[in-house]
Write a structure and sequence with these properties.
Layout: E1 4-6, E2 10-15, E3 18-25, E4 30-31, E5 38-40, E6 50-53, E7 57-58, E8 60-62, E9 65-69, E10 74-75, E11 80-82, E12 87-89, E13 100-108
Parallel strand pairs: 3-7
Antiparallel strand pairs: 1-2, 2-3, 3-4, 5-11, 6-13, 8-9, 9-13, 10-13, 11-12
């Protein structure tokens, strides 16, 4: 069982104490494969990789590995971002908006074998 299915294409799974939301491809009935987006407090994508957290804790799946924001979120100013296509300088400094982040964690999804189906 993948977890709780939320229409139209979202499933929630429990990873430790974190509830992580994943996108399920409705046609292939597998997790969508997407690179994680990492945020850094440095200008060169070095140091601790952080992931954005809002009301929902979204994960990214690459192969059979889940990348997700792990633990308690905290406000952070970032100065670089890696979205899977390389490091770029970007910042939320001076935006007037409080963004919250948590350290990037990983978990194996090897036990979730697709194609998935909806059941009772």
């Amino acid at each position: 069982m993948v977890g709780m299915f939320q229409y139209p294409q979202v499933a929630a799974i429990q990873v430790g104490s974190d509830l992580v939301w994943l996108v399920v491809n409705m046609k292939t009935r597998l997790f969508d494969q997407t690179p994680p987006v990492y945020y850094y407090t440095t200008s060169d994508c070095s140091g601790q990789a952080m992931m954005y957290v809002d009301l929902m804790r979204w994960g990214a799946v690459t192969g059979s590995t889940l990348k997700y924001p792990q633990g308690d979120p905290a406000p952070m100013i970032y100065y670089s971002v890696d979205d899977g296509s390389g490091c770029s300088q970007a910042t939320n400094e001076g935006s007037g908006q409080v963004d919250t982040f948590a350290p990037a964690g990983t978990a194996s999804l090897a036990q979730f074998i697709g194609p998935f189906k909806v059941s009772k």
